[in-house]
Amino acid sequence: MKKNDPYAALRFREFNVFLILRFAMVFAWSMQFVVIEWQVYSITKNAFSLGIIGLMEVIPAVLMALFAGHIVDQKEKKSLLFKCIIGFSVISLGLFLLTWPAIVDDLSSQVILYAIYFLVFLGGFVRSFIGPTLFSLFSLIIPKKNYPNAATWSSSVWQMGAVLGPALAGFSIHWIGVHWSMCLVLGFSLIALISLSKISKKPILNQKIGEPVSQSLREGVKFVFNTKIILGALTLDMVAVLFGGAVALLPIFAQDILNVGSEGFGILRAAPAVGALLMMFTSAYFPLHKNAGIKLLAAIFGFGVCIIVFGLSSWFWISVLALFFSGVTDGISMIIRQTILQLRTPDHMRGRVASVNSIFTGSSNELGAFESGLTAKLMGTVTAVVFGGTMTLITVVTTGIVSPKFRKLDLQKDIEAHENEEA
């Protein structure tokens, strides 16, 4: 393998299949969430209802997260992921039926609204297993010495799915309507199932099969809180997503503030995707592991600035530009965080660590949606977005001052240690 080979991880067939699988799942989940956001806001015209969607998903996701991590560390990953994708597909089918005009006409808007909330709630249980399972499967299909490069590609693919899915949702709502947009979600879940069939079953590396649940969960939580670098990275990302969740309010900006309709909504949603795509290629050629701590702090600070600019802007293209750079900075943050997690998490604890990660960061997307919806209701939409960006800046500056060890974080030694281990 050539040193600093930007395509090192892509030379493994199963990893390429894994990237397709991960993109399809993240794309489908993200697209579905936005389609439902649009539908719910169209029914209620109430910003707080957008927050309720996030809350309905985050409650079961957080409650089940640690237990899900325990199960993931105890079970074969491919079979478990198959069940997760089937569960997601069933929920998507339910949402597809709930947006069918023939059914909608026979039901009151309140019944449809509560049914959507219920299905989103069930989706939270499924989601609590998907993240840790994917994270654990990642480590079983790629050599450790290739983790940094693989984490770059995997994080970038996740980022692209997370913003391209919503972007397509915005355009597809305009082109084919909510109902057939949900049909596209089902199509991507099928792509994920087909991709999974191309990956072989993997060994269970946990030597403590049958370990009591309480002991297993304590071990996972203790590891995260005792590993300060991991804890710091998760906390920073959680705050950024929690208070910088302006994208949850994009239906309001598109419909009521910028007055650009569903087509403009699609462009706004697409802007971070372009930034994320740029980061994928850039970070593959110029790795982010050197001086990772200061780069992570700078990226999240930049993200907060972008959110403030977006909130204050009344010009459509300035708003698009702000969202574009939010995608760039968020992409940097995610790649560094995933590299830290992959390099510093023992193989037998990946499910549990990923579950703690999902509590800190994954679920903070939905909590961020709830926070944005609530503050928009209390403060007004623009003030809520600016408040969120400001809180992100304060957190980054505080972390940089009180944690000099985090500022000096450099992952080069971790990478060299893994290379020597497998030499």
SSE blueprint:
Elements: H1 13-44, H2 47-74, H3 77-98, H4 101-104, H5 109-140, H6 147-196, H7 213-226, H8 228-243, H9 250-257, H10 261-285, H11 292-312, H12 316-344, H13 350-379, H14 381-402, H15 404-407, H16 412-422
Helix pairs in contact: 1-2, 1-3, 1-5, 1-6, 2-5, 2-7, 2-13, 3-5, 3-6, 5-13, 6-10, 6-12, 8-11, 8-12, 8-13, 8-14, 9-10, 10-12, 11-12, 11-14, 13-14
Determine the fraction of residues in helical runs and give it as a percent range.
over 70%
**SSE pattern, N- to C-terminal:** HHHHHHHHHHHHHHHH
What general outline do the C-alpha atoms trace? globular
Number of helices: 16
What does this structure look like?
The protein has helices spanning 13-44, 47-74, 77-98, 101-104, 109-140, 147-196, 213-226, 228-243, 250-257, 261-285, 292-312, 316-344, 350-379, 381-402, 404-407, 412-422. The protein has 423 residues and is mostly helical. The chain has a single domain (9-199, 210-422), classed as MFS general substrate transporter like domains (Growth Hormone, Chain: A), CATH 1.20.1250. α3 (77-98) packs antiparallel against α5, α3 packs across α6 (147-196) and α8 runs parallel beside α13. It is globular, with a radius of gyration of 20 Å. It starts with 12 loop residues before the first helix and ends with a helix. The mean pLDDT is 82.
Keywords:
423 residues, Growth Hormone, Chain: A, 16 helices, mainly alpha, 0% strand
Quick rundown:
This protein is mainly alpha-helical.
